[in-house]
Amino acid sequence: MILVISVVVGVLLVQWLQKIPLSQFWIVLTDVRNLEGFLEVVYNRTALSVIITGIGSLLLWVFLGFRARVNTAAQAIRYQWIWWLLLLGQIALNIILFLVWNRDPAYGSSDAVPWIVAMIILDALVFFWLPTTLATPRPLQNVPTGSMFLKHLTGD
Amino acid sequence: MANSTLFAIGIGGTGAKCIESLMHLHAIGSLGNTKLRVFLVDADRANGNGQRTQASLNIYQNTHNLFRGGSSRWMQGDVGLYPTWSPLGDVMNRQNLGSIFSYNALKTRSPGLAGLMESLFSRQEMDADLEVGFRGRPAIGSAVMSRVSLDDPETGGSWKQLLSELKGDSNNGVACQVVVFASVFGGTGAAGAPTICRMLKNQMENLSISHVPLGAVLMLPFFSFKNPQINDQEEIFARSENFLMNTEGALNYYARYSEDLFDTAYLLGNPSYEQYEFSLGNQNQRNEANILELYAAIAACRFSRLKGQDGRACIIGRQDPRQFSWGDLPNTQETKSLLANAARFAHAWKYNFSPELDQARKIGYQRFIKGAPWFARYYGYERQGLMQLFGGSSKPRLADTQEQACKEQLDEWANLFTNWLSQIMIHGENKLQLLRVGQNTSLSQVIVNSNLDEAQLRLDDYHHLRNRLEEAKNPEEGTQGLAHTLYTLTAQS
After folding, report:
1. Residue in chain A lying closest to B386 (CA)
2. What is the ipTM of this complex?
3. Pairwise CB contact (< 8 Å): B373 & A139
């Protein structure tokens, strides 16, 4: 359930909520020639990539969690590398793709870079970090960074 | 409080080894909460088998003291050990047959009696040092035993303790039984069992102790050894070629003179002999555990459970002489369930959980819990970073002296139990296909040919066991709680 809620919240965030500050000019992009074109081409492509990599990483992690046969703590702790790789990997990939698409002279915007990068990081947290900290299968449930803290916080 | 007491008397090296097996069965719940009191009889006090049993009993007692009262059936029964009793008494200068019967004095004072002795015993037999036991000669043992009196303060000290406790328990309405383990083919056991049982029975009558069933577990030949290359041809020592003759003599004696002695007698033997290293006695006589000793211990448990109402003699044999299966053990389902549960628990502790707890101390608890969430159900730890916001835990810390003592004690018991089990499972060149424990054995392989199907076997691993440990409802805390929960969870349906 947590996984589904996170994905739904993530999609809403990416496709609707994060667009508002840009389309309503709360974030002013002074160097963009065509804001609609930027949102259509650069933002939407990046958003699609964020959703695909976010859901993909999440499903892969859950799959690995169910498949894992952990006989010792050391074996479980080794999964931390995979978790960080999936988290940082999707962020890095999405930033790179965004920067590539943002080079388009017709729609690109240098002013948008810090904002979109921040959004990509936030989206990764929503799509991957939050659901994995709360819903990783046993016995890897403590492997995602912050999971023990969040679980204590939520009384789990 | 225990509602029954089993007084187990182990006579000679084989008797002591049977007691060791009984103690292991007691640790895993075969006797329920029956109180076990152990009495070892051996002229050779330094006998390796007796010392091994005493060391095992000490480990059991220490483990029981730390882990008793838990939620599983493991370590529930109390064990007490009386000082080892020697029929030779405590006097150091009477260590051969000649001196015990004052043969040199008899030669001058009563030449007729001295002549009788000469006709019954060779000079070597009279001079043989009995500190190493009766050297496989029941005739020597019988002669020494015939002079023993439980009323003699010099020799009867430990017996008085036993009889006093027996009387006390009996008067308090505790159901008491006495079971004697002895071989009938060696020296001490063959000579001691009938004499000691007769004396014990008489003493119980004198003390008005009634309704205490007396059982005997008598071991027929089940091992042999190659005779040693001893230069002195006259040296007296046990010879395995005499075992059958000794057995015949002992059984004849039992048939003639001991018919009314035992409420039940269990006779155990094995036509294929285990090969042991020869030893004259002392610490060197330390033989490995044998499956027949497990049978002896099961017989005693049965005797205790049936309160001596098990008929006069019980016989059991193998279904197939070429192999050994679970069905060959008495009370198959319960025996299998108890042994398999304990073997899986000891194996899991020794090869997984104990090393894991060492690892926890090494890498730090908060990091360890990342990979072992079950740990936090049983132990508290110093929280670091943001986790400090949630305060500390009241659960015991693994680093506490008490928890470390529990862990080390459990390590010791698991080693003892797995070593015993490994020895039981080897007979000659063959391995008995019942249980196996070892570094390279997975949890699901501990029971050989278990009844689980493939799907169940896939769930029978440390991965799922760790999950179940974490999911356990209201587990007791600390190492004691962990051990008892683990014991319950390692039971295989």
Report:
1. A149
2. 0.84
3. yes
